[in-house]
Amino acid sequence: MSLQAAITKLQSPIKELVEGVTNSDQGSSTIAGKTEKDQAEVAGWIEKIAGGEVPKQDGLKDLDAQLTPKTYVVGNYLTAADVALYAALHPIFAQLQPAQYYTHPSLTRYFDHIQSGHSVRRSAESLSPAFQVVTFDFTSAPKIERKPDPPKQKKDKSSAAATPRESTPAPSNEKTPAKAKEESAKSAGAPEGAKTQKKEKKEKKGGNDGGKGKGGEKGAAAAEGSGEPVPSMIDLRVGHIIDIKVHPDADGLYVEQIDFGEETGPRTVVSGLVNYIPIDQMRDKYLVGVCNLKPANMRGVKSFAMVLCATHKDGKQAGIELVQPPPGSKIGERIYFEGAEFENAAPLTQLNPKKKIFETIQPGFTTLESKEAAWVNPATNSTHKIRTKDGVCVAPNFIGASLS
């Protein structure tokens, strides 16, 4: 079924809202879907909404789970399906109390994002009061605690031999009285030949895999953390700003909700960009996020990532802009550094602040004559562009900028 045929089945005022956004300059180009597959999905969603299949209040939990890893219901851009779904959800959300919408965080985030879109608001205002803005008390919402993976514990001799993922120093020959007593008890009655054979088996099992173990290159990531800092230790991903506000207690800070395609939903990120990038130029932007920094409190709000920006070579007052991933990038997509030694290396789960890995690497971040983002190795002067599998990240206007 075509989009127009599906829209005609919608009831008023949902139909008028969808038509208003579809016919607007901001919504006409991709509102029906960019591909034939997306177009079929958009029409399917609208047909379901027209038939009353979605949404129902008792089905919000399922819809919340469906939207957890998504910003939009089809593709990674606004379509008529989002407008229709928002309009159908409006009478439900207008009645919900905080205790109710707190239990559906992904759906609430989605609803608020769609209602805040310029084309949706412009069309909604012409149909007032049918689609008045629904306000949410996000400040009192239960906090989602994002805990980093626990640090790897040092393994004893037996576990290190069974899973040789990290290279460890040879054990000392010195023994405490308690350990000597324990080893004596364990070896009592065991023939000397059996102990020697057991030792040889351990050495064969643990000594020839180069420290990678079963995990291959990913298993080597932990061992990387103990060596010299390298760019591949930094976890860069494509993110999408789905909500942004000025920090309630700091006029120079933004508080953003950035979707990195994670099942836990968007991350809260605090950025000191208020005085450099207008809020309208931040909304709905795709960006590069540094995702394995240790979470930090910024004037009472915990920040779980960092937005990678380019600072003009003449300093902040000359301008700051977002580093942009290639067109068509997918939310959560991996961003890496060119070069055989970096491209297939796994980033660390979390950068150790004491080792200052990011601070050591960051001075080499720059933009080239082509405005492409790159890391220049200070030791070899080799250039390693920052990219996804489909293209290189760029600072739209700056050459020789510093990235941080």
UniProtKB/TrEMBL annotation:
Q: What is this protein called?
A: Nucleic acid-binding protein
Keyword Kinase included in the entry's annotation: no
* Record-level GO cellular component terms: methionyl glutamyl tRNA synthetase complex
- The question of whether Glycosyltransferase is a record keyword is answered with no
Compositional bias, Low complexity, is annotated for 219-228
Compositional bias of kind Basic and acidic residues: 143-158, 176-185, 203-217
The protein's matches in CDD domains, at most eight in alphabetical order, are given as:
GST_C_AaRS_like (cd10289), tRNA_bind_EMAP-II_like (cd02799)
- Ranges for domain GST C-terminal: 1-136
Matching entries from PROSITE patterns are given as: GST_CTER, TRBD
The record's listing under Gene3D superfamilies reads: 1.20.1050.10, Nucleic acid-binding proteins (2.40.50.140)
Q: Where is the TRNA-binding domain?
A: 230-336
What keywords were assigned to this record? Answer: RNA-binding, tRNA-binding
InterPro entries listed in its UniProt record: Arc1-like_N, Glutathione-S-Trfase_C-like, Glutathione-S-Trfase_C_sf, NA-bd_OB-fold, tRNA-bd_dom, Tyrosine-tRNA_ligase_regulator
